[in-house]
Amino acid sequence: MSLLACGALPACAASAIEVGGIEGAVSQSRTQYADRVVSLVVRAAGEALTLTAAELRADGFTDSSVDGLEMRIGPDRPRGVAVPVPLGQAVCGPGDGAVALDPSASEESARVSLTVQQDGFGATVLEVAATDPLDRLAVIPKEDCAAAAVAGAAALTIEDRVEDLGDGTAQLRLRIAPVPGGPEVRIEEIQATTLFSRADGATWTGSALESQSSGEVPLRIIPSRCDAHVLAEDKRGTFVPVHASVDGVRQAPMYVPVPDAARRALIEFITRTCGLGE
Fold first, then answer.
1. Lower CB density within 10 Å: C or N end of the chain?
2. Beta strands in the chain, from DSSP E residues, in sequence order
3. What is the pLDDT of residues 113-166, one digit of tens each?
4. Pair (182, 256) in one structural domain
5. DSSP string of 153-185, one letter each residue
6. Of 81, 99, 133, which residue sits at a domain end?
7. What pLDDT shows up at residue 4?
8. Interval 2-10 mean pLDDT
9. Is residue 139 part of a domain?
10. Residue 225: phi, psi to the nearest 5?
């Protein structure tokens, strides 16, 4: 592929950058989840280039970009470089948590504009289709729009303490504070996390959620796994998956964070119950 880089050079025809084999892929690690950041992995199989800026355009989000980069890509870096890109705002439907996605969108619905430079040439902008092997760009806006729809009806929070019940179980509480004049919200299911599970069942559904009309749901829990490595490396286990309906419309799962104080107490409970500190 031969692309013109006019920059400050007087004749574009004499300043063509030979570019080939540019690939882009989107991924998201556990450490990026809470900050709504994805990694744009860029590979170049042809000439060595310097990547200076990137813009991500994906169905379900407003555009987002990052500049001021100085990242070398080329055949000597076959694994490419990972560029952290903050996600734009989710584009949601009118009030029901739906996502305004193109029904014809495919795995390559994300596109990126890459600003690159080659020694002796000016800057060139390349348009590249980016794959999304784990479908993060499809999942994240659904979660964001579900959270926005629920937030218009009620504030969901986890109480900032963990009660050790002394029998190998502990208790968290999900607080539900309806928005005055807002739509009706109902909790349909609460799922386990990588750190804790329901003490007497798979998930919280049905009668386990009956107390929600009082403004809270007690969550009696046990450790999901007694694994010191999982506990030390976990980044998602303190985000509680909650399925809710708003005015009768079932939403995608949203994730309610466990406050820092409760997170510390939760880790202490798991460590003590599993005997991991011995």
1. C
2. 2-4, 16-18, 22-27, 37-44, 49-57, 64-66, 71-73, 81-86, 110-117, 123-131, 154-158, 163-164, 170-178, 185-190, 196-198, 216-223, 239-246, 249-250, 254-257
3. 999 998 878 899 999 999 999 999 999 999 999 999 999 999 999 999 999 999
4. yes
5. TEEEEE-S--EE-SSS-EEEEEEEEEPTT---E
6. 133
7. 36
8. 36
9. no
10. -145, 145
**Number of independent structural domains in the chain:** 2
- Residues 243, 182: one domain? yes
Is there a domain that residue 144 lies in? no
Tens of pLDDT, residue by residue over 170-190, are 999 999 999 999 999 999 999
What mean pLDDT is predicted for residues 223-237?
92
What is the distance, to the nearest Å, from the Cα of residue 269 to the centroid of all Cα atoms in its chain?
Answer: 27
Residue ranges making up the domain that contains 33? 2-133
Task: Give the contacts of 43 (CB within 8 A, at least 6 positions apart).
Answer: 21, 22, 23, 24, 73, 77, 78, 79, 80
The burial of 97, by beta-carbon neighbours within 10 Å (0-12 exposed, 13-18 middle, 19 or more buried), is given as buried
CA 13-19-20 angle, 5° bins:
140
Give the separation between CA 188 and CA 209, rounded to whole angstroms. 8
Distance CA(254)–CA(143), nearest Å, equals 5
Q: Is residue 126 domain-resident?
A: yes
CATH assignment at residue 159: 2.60.40
Give the CA count within 13 Å in the CB-facing half-sphere of 72: 7
Percent of the chain's residues with pLDDT above 90: 76
What is the spatial distance between Cα 115 and Cα 54, in angstroms, rounded to a whole number?
6
Residue 120: predicted pLDDT: 74
Provide the 8-state DSSP code for 206.
Answer: G
Distances (CA, A) of 147 to 7, 153, 175, 214: 45, 10, 15, 21
Among 67, 101, 133, the domain boundary falls at 133
pTM attached to this predicted model: 0.80
- If one compares 158 and 107, the residue with the highest pLDDT of the two is 158
